[in-house]
Structures are given as structure tokens and as C-alpha cells.
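Handoff note, outgoing to incoming analyst
You'll be picking up this chain. Sequence as last confirmed:
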Amino acid sequence: MDDAKASRRSRPTVREATEFDATAFVFDGKGGVKPVDFPAVAAEPPAKGFLLIAGSLSSPDFRVWLHDNLEAPAAEGLTAVDQHARCTVLEDKALVVLKVVRPKSDPDDLSRQTMALWLEKSRVVIASKLQLTELVSVAQWQQSRHAPLSPADLIARMGMRAADRAEPLVEHLGDRLDSIEEAIMAARGHEHRNDLTRLRRSLISLRRLLWPQRDVLNTLEIEDLSFLTTRDRARLREASARSARLGDELQILAERAALVHEQVLDTRAEQMNRTMLVLTAATVIAMPMTVVSGLLGMNVAGIPFSQSPEAFWFVVVGLAVVGSAMVWFMRTRKWL
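Most recent structure output, in case you need it:
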């Protein structure tokens, strides 16, 4: 075991663009929070309140610290690749994985970041490529002395901040859908088919982010963890409800987008039917003229009026009368 730890410590450090220094904070359980030295003080949870440790998954040193200071299931769960949003309870501890929208994400290319959290009675460990301060404001908590009172309270606030970050995207997608609907009402829907396709893809992607988060918070709320208080469960329920509300809005937008897509398809089908109707009518009108002109154009003896100079104009006038009669007949039948 010592050899394995020494081997991990001896690995060369390769920094990535998302790598940042690990930080640690002590929450006193009364609304106060203060930073502490990492890793010197961060190994022991405080007697009152809880300890928060946040580090980068891109940092080899932090990954080594996780394996050295946490149980194997916790370290493996925090450092796993391609994680899905979930809540897994192990004895009286929990592994929570949240999906967070990256700041200033383009709805057409939604960027999601995973945050893995290990919850104990007096300690929370976060491993992610997204800094904690990008999601919550620890400095504001220090000034206002309104910091989370417990690990579950911290998770609930992070869940609400994640929902708050996604809410502007939901509103933006709704505005875009309104614009596309107005364009279709103005008979310009064919110009926005690609926009509608991208919008539906963004709605699906964002909905797949929010609904699992709602289930994660619901699962944590109902789990039988000894350190969850009635207040903690209420906070988790509130955070879950906010994610559920955004998920419901996305569901409504997705249904509206599906109806708009069907309307676009109906418009295209109607245009195609009208085009085919015009082509068919033109074919039917020209058919008698084609038959007559074909008969008169045969290179055989006995064709009537073949020697008359005025016969050509009589035939032309006759064909025009026949064509006009066909058009009149179709209009009376409302085929045109």
C-alpha cells in the first residue's frame, strides 16, 4: 500500500487548462465560513459544523490526495470518467453527482460540467473541472454570514444555483421558439427549419440535464442519512422543485416545438400538393391538344383540310377553345 502511494506521489504533474488549486473551508454551522489551509488542516473535520474541500479533477496531486484520504469507493466515485447524475448512498455517506451548465453557454452547443460530491456528517469533498466559486459565492457567504448550515444545505444551495444558471437558457429558448412561430405565421417557415431543428436539439439536451438533477435531489431527500435534519430535507425539496419547474417548462417548450415542426411539415406538404395539382391540371388541359395535333401531324394521306391555307388557324382556334373549356370545367369543379 505504501509503495502504491509513493508511486502515485512520484507521478509527474501535467497541468490542464481546467486545473486549479484545491481549497478548503470550515463552516461553523451557524452561518459563518472561513478558509483553511489545504491539505494541512483539511484532513480532520471540525468538532462543530463541517469541512468543505474542493479540488480539480485535472490535478494529479488532488487525485492522489483523494485516494490517500478517502475510502476506496469514495475516491473511485469522485474520479470516475463520464459520470451520470445520480445519488448513491453507502452506509451513512452519499455520493452525489450533479450536471451543471457552464457559464455563458451557447444554447446551440450546450456545455455541461460534472460536479461529484462526497457527503459525510462533518465533511464534503467536491471533485470537478468546474471551480466551486463559479457556482456559489463563498466570499458573499463570509460577508453576510449566511453560509450553509449543513452538508445537505450546501447541496441544496448548489442545486438551486445550478437551476438558476439554466433558467436564462430556458427563457432564451422560449423566445427563440416564439420568433420561429411568428415567422411561420408570416409564411416564412421554410427559412427557419434549420433553426427549429437546432432549437429542438437544445431543448432535449437541457431537459436531459435538469430532470436527472431533480431525481438526484429527491433521492437524497428521502434517504435515511443520520445527519439530515428536517430543515435539510425541506431545503432539498425546494431545490428539487425548482429543477422540476424548469424541467416542466422545457417539456412544454419541447411539445410546442414538436407542434411547430408538424406545422412546418404540413405547410411543405400543402405546397407540394398545390404544385402537383397545377402540374396535373396542365397535363390534363394539354392532353386533348396533344391528341389532335398528333393526329393532324401524321404523314399519311387523307388528312382533312391539308390543302387549305386557313386550316392551320382554324385548328389553333379550336385547340384554344378546347383548352379554355377544360380550364372552365376544372374551375367549376373547384379543382383549380
